[in-house]
Amino acid sequence: MLEVHHVTKNYQSFTALKEVDLQFDHGIYGLLAPNGAGKTTLMKMLVTLTFPSDGEITYNHENIVDLGEEYRDILGYLPQDFGYYKSYTAEKYLMYIAALKGLDKTKAKLRIKELLELVGLQDVGRKKLKKFSGGMIQRVGVCQALLNDPKVLILDEPTAGLDPKERARFKRLLSTLARDRIILLSTHIVSDIESIAKEIIMIKDKRVLYKKNQEELRSLLEGKLFEAIIPFEDVEAYHSKFSVLSEKQEKNGIKVRFVSEQKGAWNEVEPSLEDVFLYVYEEETDLSEDRKHD
After folding, report:
1. pTM confidence score
2. 2-218: CATH architecture
3. Core vs surface per residue 128-167: b (16+ CB within 10 A) or e
4. What distance in Å separates the CA atoms of residue 238 and residue 291, rounded to the nearest whole number?
5. I want to staple 197 with a disulfide (CB 3.0 to 4.6 A). Which of 14, 30, 38, 225 is the partner?
6. At what angle do helices 105-118 and 90-100 cross, to 10 degrees?
7. Cβ atoms within 10 A of the Cβ of 108, count?
8. DSSP for the chain?
């Protein structure tokens, strides 16, 4: 059990996160918020790269800072940008990371072979990383995070640079891994977690706004989401009256998807997770200050 207890993170006069409380057990958790909302700050605290200004984070009821190496031994982490040597082959790079993690050399070789097969890179393990595409590099990053067979896996924007086929493969991989470990996946791309997350965490105004499953989140807009095709000249009026989530040009006007507390002569539609995301973060237009730290 990984738990976040009343955690606040301050950077001098700026507060990045405030009084965050979370609990994780086995399964995949999606951390869904716009860029700059505090996702990376939370993840850096979970992997002890930075520390709470107030509150604590525990693993099996012990503070992760006090656990030290014992906690890091069961931790896997893929940051947004991980460092690697372009002149190294994939195998050499992973052996280097395995050595840093203190893994036995013979066991590391077997583990690297297994992981490269797992991510579909078994045929290019001896090619230099400078010849890899962005998606291939990202898969190598997943391998390094899994080298020590972690019980807690923290992934920050892990699908960056992956094409649709690679994304699908990655989601299948995570679903398999989640059976006996905690996986926290940070993203601002709804489709990354829509089919695999056990629960979704949404952060707003420095706090955890929701930690719910997808059905619970979609129910927030149940009976309130509508579509209508309207004349071009009415679009501005709809924006002033309703929360418009999307617009699509049609032959006879603009199809708007919007939220209304009152029913009208419109077509009621089933809300998706993306609808909830757009509605919750509709007013998140300036996160520049957060981006300094996130």
Report:
1. 0.86
2. 3-Layer(aba) Sandwich (3.40)
3. ebeebeebbbbbbbbbbbbbbebbbbbbbbbbbebeeebb
4. 31
5. 30
6. 130
7. 20
8. -EEEEEEEEEETTEEEEEEEEEEE-SEEEEEE--TTSSHHHHHHHHTTSS--SEEEEEETTEEHHHHTHHHHTTEEEE-SS----TTSBHHHHHHHHHHHTT--HHHHHHHHHHHHHHTT-TTSTTSBGGGS-HHHHHHHHHHHHHTT--SEEEEESTTTT--HHHHHHHHHHHHHHGGGSEEEEEES-GGGTTTT-SEEEEEETTEEEEEE-HHHHHGGGTTTEEEEEE-GGGHHHHHHHSEEEEEEEETTEEEEEEE-SS--SSEE----HHHHHHHHTTT----HHHHTT-
